[in-house]
Amino acid sequence: MPSLAPDLPARLALAQAIAREAGAVALDYFNRRDTLVIETKRDLQDVVSVADREVEELIRARILAAYADDGILGEEYGLQSGSSGFTWVVDPIDGTSPFVNGMPNWCISIGLLYSGVPVVGVIFAPCHDEMYAGGLDMGATLNGKKLTLDPSRNIRNAVTGIGANSHVTPATVAKIVEDLLTAGGNFIRNGSGALMLAYVAAGRLVGYYEPYMHAWDCLAGYCLVKEAGGWYHVFPTEGEKLTKGAPVIATAPGAIDDLKAIAGL
Ligand code: IPD
Ligand code: CA
Ligand code: CA
Ligand code: CA
Fold it and tell me: Which residues are Mg(2+) 1-binding (predicted)?
């Protein structure tokens, strides 16, 4: 059972230490980004640089030095299976587009699965020096301050994050935005889905919806939102599904039904 996951406080502490160290490396690259060679992946909007790869290498090395039997899935280097029942799910830089374009909306995202359930979520935003940290049944914090969602906030009296990438059609994205606006809401997109999920946990956004994201984009944020008192749409983690994309939704209690309806769930 996930709540019996051993050694969780130590793993949560390690994740925060690694995120801070990785954040310093990434911030150094950010501050000299004019020297970076920007490469593309799926399309011209899907960018990557040596910063993403070096940060992921650092995170993998630190995790394996402490927990050699754990598995690790990262955006840049894929899945390395383990035997402990734990799998770390890492996005070394979420918000690479803001990163290479000189905007501060990017973060290090480190999640941990036990028996397929997110049990640790750490998101660190170096430009803002904001550390979001949560562990299953341990609560969630922002820079050490406990996060608790306000049940009176909904899609009409608060703002909702919407994300999009080239895995979904323009018409799909347009329909989501149209439905949200028609329901009396409004949308924000800052270019980092993981950071926007942390903002849901912090009560800055009432919810986040993106029709197709990967495990490394959402699992840390999911743990944070749940521990702050919110809800998330379960990401499939069995076998191959862990490395594929799926709809990502996380909300405060007052926005669950509206966002599920917009997502067609
Ligand atoms: C992307 C960001 C973006 C979201 C994309 C993700 P990356 O991650 O989270 O906000 O809309 O779907 O792929 O590539 O910056 O790590
Ligand atoms: Ca990417
Ligand atoms: Ca990402
Ligand atoms: Ca990334």
Answer: 75, 91, 94, 217
Rounded to two decimals, the pTM is: 0.97
Mutate to test the pocket of ligand 1, among 52, 56, 192, 197 (most ligand atoms within 8 A of CB): 192
Longest alpha-carbon distance in the chain: 51
Q: Under DSSP, is residue 28 helix (H, G, I), strand (E, B) or coil?
A: helix
Taking a 5 Å cut-off on Cβ, the residues next to ion ligand 3 are: 91, 94, 217
Contacts of 162 (CB under 8 A, 6+ apart): 173, 176, 177, 180, 187, 188, 189, 208, 209, 210
Provide DSSP, 134-174: EETTTEEEETTEE----TT--TTTS-EEE---TTS-HHHHH
Domains and CATH numbers, the chain: 2-146 (3.30.540.10), 160-263 (3.40.190.80)
**Residue 21, annotated ligand binder?**
no
Residue-wise pLDDT for 108-156, tens only, equals 999 999 999 999 999 999 999 999 999 999 999 999 999 999 999 999 9
How many angstroms does the Cα of residue 4 sit away from the middle of ligand 4?
30
Q: Whose CA is nearest to atom 5 of ligand 1?
A: 165
Give the number of other Cβ atoms within 10 Å of residue 76's Cβ.
18
Alpha carbon of 233 to ligand 1 centroid (Å): 18
